[in-house]
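new request in #modeling-help
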Amino acid sequence: MATILVVDDEPTIRVLVRAALEGKGYRLLEAADGPSALQVALDERPDVVLLDIALPHLSGLEVCRRLKADPATAGASVLLLTGLVQQTERQAAEQVGAQAFIAKPFSPAALVAQVEDALLRRPAAVSH
Amino acid sequence: MALGNGVREARSRSTSVPGTSGPRALAEGHGPALLRMAAQERALNRAALQILAEVDEEGLLQVALGVVSSLLRVDAAALYLTTDDAAVPCCRGTRHRNTTFVLPLEEALPDAFANDVLRRKAPRQRRSWSPPGGQPCGSALAVPLASQGVSLGVLIVGRREAGRFRDDHVSLLLATGRQLAVALLRLRAPPPSGLEDGARDLLDGIAEGLLVVDREMRITYLNPAGGEIIGLSTAQAVGREVGEVLALTDEGGRALTLEAHPFARGLWEDGPVVLTANVARANGRVPLAFSVAPIRDRKGDTACAVGIFRDCSREKEVERHRTEFVSIASHEIRTPLCALQGFTELMLSREIPTNVQRDWLSIMNHEAVRLAALIEEMLDVTRIESGRVTLTMTPVHVGDVVRRATRLFDGEGERVQLVIESAPTVVADGDKVAQVVTNLLRNALDYSPLDRPVTVEIAAHCLAPRHCSLVTVNGGARTGAAHACGSGVSVAIRDQGVGMTREELSRAFQPFYRAESSRKLSPEGSGLGLAIAKAIVERHHGCLWAHSRPGRGSTIGFCLPAHAAARSEGAG
């Protein structure tokens, strides 16, 4: 069973993402800020991380960079899910190794498709 | 009597003036007067074209004399030009190239003849005259050279034979003289780069920087405002190369190449060049907005470039602020929108149990309300900041305003302790002042524990603590520590909450800024409350200040100006 970690400081978004992915057979985890996202990722080794950029304490971009820098978490596909949609953020997302950039507001169906695609094209198998 | 080379030269040049045989031939051949006039006109037009085509004075005078000699079939022609230093209009000027045009009558012609023409501004002729002690040697016709009321000299033609000049010859010479005067004036007009005193005074007074460079990029003029921006006096700058005096960098901080310099581009590009570049200053880079255009001479060649420039830091700051505002605002709007789009799409795409539907609808409703409030606040802050909100100024009792605002907080209002030392009446927009109090109270209540009180103090003197941060002083942005304004009324709201670091405090009044600690305690705040309060206080020309220590609470307060209080007494 693939594990998906949803990181967003807005509870509404976490509920929505959970609702969109529910019933697809995933194990869903949540985090509300950068440091706890890193901790959950390290503990639970998710396959996909849906990551907001504007997060308290540690930005999503920095979380992504650290996930990719740590061999223990580097295997996770990171999909940035954000309302910051300027070109600078898109470029930064690419630089820190995010696999996709999903702009808010998003379609739940499109999100599901993106997650499925990410699972198929995972950079490397994650050892659990 | 020998004719000089000049006359021959003039005649030889005259071969390039077609139709010069026309007037005389027609006159002698009894042709219709009309035909003669038409031919003369054609000849005159050609002569005029030839005269106007000349680009320097020496060439012009040469050509003019040649044209005149051929046109009137005279034996000699001469020009008397008035000198610049002539106190009275007289022709004690240069006989132009009198060695080239040896006028046989010249020696005999008294200056008085030319002077007389100059004074009368009318043609004169002499049927004959004799030089002192000599034989009668010919006739002469003189016309004034004048244009736009400026006397330039006298044009004289002479013949060997005695006799009267025909009227049409007089007209022809007059017309040629006028043409020559126009051409002379045009040539003598100062080049565009040269500044006359009047123009200089005008440019010196311009508030924007103005700089003129020659073709070699050397500064020929810099007005005082420009000197202030560049940091040099006009005297220090003139003669130096503009690239050296005004070294510029682009947005990325890279030095502009000589070709990219606004004045280089202004010199060599076709139209005006409008661009922004930065100049280095001790306190950082200053953006300057340039508009530079080439000035061309009569031949169409670039003579110099004139540019205006000004410090555009303020515009840049406003632009940056606006871009940032739009960017953050769009981000803030996207989250509630995301909930609305996402949940509706889910409900439309599959069967959802009623209880789950109700949960989602409740979230959507909450987000829609939040979106509406957010938009309202965003409009508020932009409207107030841009001055598009008209304040309704009436005498306002600040104590009443605070009491009313407190009541809006329902149960939470019980935590508010009022300390009213004195609550004068000031002239202000009551609703807007209430909004300031509400926003500051909202912040204090949200970011402090439920069991801690929030104090609102009102006094007739400034309540700002000694070491507070000043956000706005008398309606303008200023930072610093010491503050004591002569306020009419001062309101301070003190909490015992999470407080802010110095860095957080410095940004707390920017739109959408939310401190880390505040996100935790009240995740749904828009981050606009303090920005709105600041904008309102600024519009009242009041002061806004804040004092905060992490973990020990914050005091944020505002003062409304004393003159408002004084006016209220007057108005009341």
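bot summary: The longest helix of chain B spans residues 313-349.
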